[in-house]
Amino acid sequence: MSYFDRLDHYELLKLDTEGFPAPRELPAGYEWAADIGVEAERALLDPVFPGSHNATERRLAGWRDDTIVAVAHGGEPVAVCYVCADNQLGIEGYGELHYAAVLDEHKGKGLWGAMIREMLRRAKAWGDVRGVIFVTDRKGPIEMYLRMGAQRIGTRPKGDARPLWRRAASRARRIVGGR
Ligand SMILES: CC(C)(COP(=O)(O)OP(=O)(O)OC[C@H]1O[C@@H](n2cnc3c(N)ncnc32)[C@H](O)[C@@H]1OP(=O)(O)O)[C@@H](O)C(=O)NCCC(=O)NCCS
User: Fold this and answer.
1) Is 150 in the pocket of ligand 1 (CB under 6 A)?
2) How confident is the chain (179 residues) per 10-residue block, as mean pLDDT?
């Protein structure tokens, strides 16, 4: 069962590349890491996203060479997220952001904010997506994304089953102007 299938409630949001927040420098001592390795990815993801193997098994739709957005400190991976050129709902023209995670001792330093800006920069550079959607069940992060300019495009209330999820998906497709 994937992480996503475990959610009994989710919100669907989107961030457009048009007018996306300008890239932000990483704090001193941190650097972008091209490939942190699957073991390090698991160490970051497992505690906060049980069942997120679709990322480390490279089974996310629209995987690109620069899908992994990662940050290291002193050569050690401390944060990761994934940006893909397609999304799991079939919303045309949109990629998807998956699983942003920052190690506890590196939280609160702006790493998430820097990663989100960097992943949008990459998505824009691909030239074939208008933005990214993302799915989350977490209240705090939803507020963070909304403050950054994300828009809500759908929800699935607690207790609803697959059929509603599908309705939410087609509603989202209409809202973002896809097929
Ligand atoms: C959520 C998470 C990625 C934030 O990482 P971070 O690097 O500490 O975030 P930043 O330092 O970039 O903070 C960005 C802003 O969001 C705020 N913020 C951070 N965590 C927050 C939370 N859980 N709820 C609400 N606001 C939060 C910060 O105060 C900051 O606000 P500011 O710009 O006004 O100062 C990190 O706490 C984490 O890995 N959590 C577990 C996994 C998770 O929930 N990921 C998101 C799922 S969609």
Assistant:
1) no
2) 69 91 92 95 95 93 97 97 94 96 97 96 95 91 93 74 55 63
Ligand 1: does its nearest atom lie under 6 Å from the Cβ of 145?
no
Location of structure tokens 């993801």: 45
**Which contiguous run of DSSP H or E holds residue 126?**
helix 111-126
- CA–CA distance, 9 with 156 (Å, rounded to integer): 5
Whether residue 127 has its Cβ less than 6 Å from ligand 1? no
Domains of the chain, by residue range, sit at: 3-175
Tokens standing for residue 116: 């989100």
Global pTM exceeds 0.85: yes
Q: Does residue 21's CB lie within 6 angstroms of at least one atom of ligand 1?
A: no
Q: 15 is written with which tokens? A: 């961030």
In the β-sheet with 76-84, what is the strand arrangement from edge to edge? 30-33, 68-73, 76-84, 94-102, 131-136, 10-16, 151-156
**CATH architecture assigned to 3-175:** 3-Layer(aba) Sandwich (3.40)
Report which protein residue has its CA nearest ligand 1's atom 5: 112
